Protein 1
Amino acid sequence: MNLRESSNRENVLIELNNFIIEQSTEAMRMDLGFHLWNSSQTLTILLQCMASHSDARIGLLKANIPYFLNPFLRISENVMSPLQFVTLSILNLIAALAKFDESHGQEILLLLLDTQVVPLCLHCILHGDQLIRKVATHILMKILMQEKGLKYCCALPARFLLVIQVLRQLDDPEIPNMLHQLVLNLTRQPPQ
């Protein structure tokens, strides 16, 4: 069934509503709405599914979804612990959005750079648990493998030094190669 067609979508929603009404009590229905709308896992899973489709991915970016997610990645170290699952889910969503090898790849890269994904990933690498560090490092590496992403990281001395300092703390065999690329890119850029 194609849910993109409004008549099909409306019929499915009517049937779903009828099923919920028939199969549940009023108290259950009240709780259902609360849990569906307040569940960060449900929302991030839905957004991750959307991000896996190329047309929906660019729609999410044009709707500036990363801007709305950034506050969850800026949380302080003492708050991060209880919200680690939310942070991890959002990082997974950003990783799903970071597909630079497709037709909208450079547009996606520029939007992610504009939404400060690099400093947010660095923050997550410094303060997150092992899984958060791994996903944030993956996103950062994908950005650094793009010429514009590498130039972004080398554009300001403070940004460059922060990236170098954070990457040096990681135990990843690819880090020395990435640091070498950063230094080469920095030495090739003309002074401003």
Note: The chain has two domains: 1-38, 40-147.
Protein 2
Amino acid sequence: MSETEYLNRRVEKPISETARYWKVMNFYERFEQIVALMLSFVIAIIIVVALFRLMHEVIVLLMSSGLNPLQFDVFQGLFGMIMTLLIAMEFKHSIIRVIHRKVHIIQVKTVLMIAQLALARKFIILDFKTTSAMEVFSLGFVVLVLAIAHWLLRERDRIEEQDEKFVDNLEDRTE
């Protein structure tokens, strides 16, 4: 996609997209749009508050000369906060896709990706000194299951895409 196409797409606001299709939406689609808008607003507030708390934490650490990223507990705390922000932003992005009418519901792949981000955060903040081997094994197993699920969904999408191309080719040949 060219930069001009991208900018032209970005001109429309989510609310105008919703307003454009409001008359043709059924009751549940309208309900879904309202919920998505409200969730998007709430998550935006959470992101802003979390960002200010992260900035406050960094400033306090800078002022007290406690900002030493080589200290494991400082690293855990800061990157845990950063990962939490990234997870919230990804979640908000998936809701915005519903508002922009690109998808009707939150996609399974998006949920899997958010779960993978949450696990990555968990591994970053995990204190291996106090964590049992069984808990680490369990988390590793969950990572494996999520990776397999993501791969299966990607394969399904690839096969569906190939089927669509095959049908399109058949239609072109019959014309």
Note: The mean pLDDT is 81.
Protein 3
Amino acid sequence: MSYSNSELDQSGIAGYAVRGTQMKRQRLLLGIPSSFICEICTEIMSPNKRFNNECCKHDFCVDCVAKYIKVKVFDDVSKIKCPDPDCVAFLDCLSCQLILSKDVFEKWCDNLCDSKILVLEMVYCPDPSCSALILNECGGRVEKSECPHCKKQFCFTCKVPWHSGYQCKEFAEEMKDSNYLLFEKLAKLKAWKRCPTCNYFVERRSGCRNVRCRCGTDFCHICGMTSLCQCS
């Protein structure tokens, strides 16, 4: 039994169904029942080309899945769903390592790390000579802390060197002195904007209005929004 080119080159949903049926018949006629049809490229694949996802079972070839992951990764997606639009399962980064290039795998790992960091409370060491990024990985309210880099004590809540002898509320009131007011005036004069994620000031010296804070957050320097900005 044979099929014409017109029969094998149908397009659209109906054409896909016809082509899939024809391929299955051809596969059986060829005597390779263990082969499969990739649901993305619709090509007949040998068993060693099948992509295995631990959370779900779909007929995808490793080449198509690798290309799919690459597109998602360079769109800064961290949690990548199964290519099947009706599937709710996610792909595991480590399980996919062998089918990905080194740069794609490392980029995916970076995306996963960034997504974890952004949901944690963070602060920069208040010592100007250090300024290391410090995360609250334990959760809850944290006050007296020690920078793991410079070993100096600071207040995680107030984001300043440790205010010995003052409660945070008392120190906040003391901060409303002339020096604090002068700093606020300077920030206004320089048109500094606070980052919506870490609350630190960001200065835009030149270029477009979209800026990136050192914590990794992108936002509009005019309105401060991270998305849906309508500034012109």
Note: The radius of gyration is 27 Å.
Protein 4
Amino acid sequence: MKTRLLTTVLASALLAAAPTLAMAQARPAATAAQPSAAARTVLDASSRILSALETRRAEFRANPAALRGFIDSELSRGFDRDYAARLVLGVHGRGAADADVKLFADAMADNLMARYGSTLLDIQGKPSFRYKGEAALPGNRGVKVSTELVRAGSEPTPVEYLMRDVGGQWKIFDVMIEGISYVQTFKNQFDAPLRQKSIKDVAAELRSGSMQANAGPAPRGK
């Protein structure tokens, strides 16, 4: 159960601006400091996405294109997809054209959506999302917002969001679940293919499905 939870959470990071936004209603901890603008971005999005998934569940099941459109909208709204893609590309993205980076970012997000998107509609119960605090990132890179995913009968799962200010709007560029970064996870996965192929070629294979973005073990029955 825990493996499947974390797989879905991690996959959702690229789909819905943050991994647990589609899985948990935000609930600030009573003892935590008042959330900043960055933290409120995460907390507000979680409530908005949860509400939409609950009220539009039947529509989304009947019309996967509507679910994809909703996820794309949330992704553009709260996730710094192209910057995160550059971090995933690492040395392979040095000097790469913005258009190629965007091509890779979009292909990876679409690949994840095709593989894991339906799991967003299979959420059972009502997990809660507890705000713990935040800290500045080194080098004035932004802030880290610390939270816990709380589920009945389970130990709280630490989830941290790395965010930066983009033109006056706070956006997420990495998510760490129990200390595991999704950026680093995909950076490790795509290092070998990018040593052999161009960014465009890898993006094309992701788009065609001949290469898969792996957020962990595929959900059972998928």
Note: The helical segments are 2-15, 37-55, 57-62, 64-78, 81-89, 98-116, 182-196, 199-208.
